Structures are given as structure tokens and as C-alpha cells.
Amino acid sequence: MTPNKEDYLKMVYELGETTKKVTNKQLVSGLKVSAASVSEMITKLLKEGYVGHIPYKGIHLTEEGLQKASALVRKHRLWEVFLVNNLGYAWNEVHQEAEVLEHVTSIELTRHLDKYLDFPTVCPHGGMIPAEKEVVHEKFLSTLVDKEIYDVVKIKRVADEKELLDYLASLDVNIGDRYKIIDIGAYEGPITLEAEGKQLVVSYKAATNIFIESV
Prior knowledge:
Layout: H1 3-16, H2 24-31, H3 35-47, E1 51-54, E2 58-61, H4 63-87, H5 94-101, H6 107-116, E3 142-143, E4 152-158, H7 162-170, E5 178-184, E6 191-195, E7 198-202, H8 204-207, E8 210-214
Antiparallel strand pairs: 1-2, 3-8, 4-5, 4-8, 5-6, 6-7
Helix pairs in contact: 1-2, 1-4, 2-3, 4-5
């Protein structure tokens, strides 16, 4: 399978995971390609049995497509762990590097990398790292926008998107941080968090991609 096809399958997974349908428009935005390129590639993936399509609802991965996407996610997230733990990368710096490495990593190298890292189960962004031949199923978590004022939450996972990660890094937000929600702006306004006497304001858009559990 070509790296381009792999990118499409992984993007369909990242946008819809195992339950949501994904639109061509979302793929155009996520992959930063033209609408014509998306239509052409989806037609190929449909013929090869990696995706299915329901008119007016969107695209989803077939079982075979999910297996392929899971294997790629596994490689990507293992490299992210390696880069953070062994080469001193920050969590917002590893995505692009892992995007390159995932396409040139053999199954055997993946096994050795997994063993070297002592079989990690989550990546630096809190995402599940599936075992070999395991399908990736993220644990259902609420997002920050689902909570209410005065709730205390712990950040468990964030979407693996470069702009979001850079934004959170600028706010010094990390996986495992605990915050109390002290204000929620009206009409999808920002959410104000507090921890140890310090406050920070998170945009609504970012909050929709911050997955938390109640404390």
C-alpha cells in the first residue's frame, strides 16, 4: 500500500474513529488536498474494500481498512513515545516526525521498537497504542465542553493535531493535568480553568478536542 493511501485511511480513522462517518470536506481540510484528489482516492479505496460509503452520511472504514489504519496508528504512536522519551522532543513536536517514520517502518522493526519501549499502551497525547494485529478502540471520554462550572477534571487525551498541540503547549497544558472549571463563556465562548491558584483560558474549539475524566 502506498503512503498516500495509508494517510487517507489513518485520517478517516482520526476523524471518525470506529463510529462516526467522515465527509469528503473533512478529508480535504484534514489532509490539505483538493476535493478532486479526495474523490479520486476514495473511489480507489472503495474498490479495494478499505472504506465503505453511505450516501448523504459519509465514509467509514471497513474491517480490513480498520486493520490497516490500526497498524499505522500503532507505528505512529510508538515513534511518538520514542521521540519524547529518548530524544527529548516535546509532545507538540513529534507528530510530523512520526508521520514520516510510520511509512518506512517494517513489522519487524515495530516489534523491536515496542519491546525496546517496554510495550507502552498510550502515546504522549493519551491515545491508545494497539498491540500487534489489535484494532485501535479509544476509550470513550467526555470532552471539556461537556462539563459544567465547578467540575474538576483530569486531562486524559487530546487530538493529535499539530495546531492544537502547539496551542496547548503555549498554555502549558499536559496530559494528566487537573483543573477546576470556573467559567464557561456563552455561545461557545472560551472555558476558564484553574489549578493551584493559576487560571488559563482555553478556546471552545480546542476544548472540543480535549478529552477528560471527572475527578
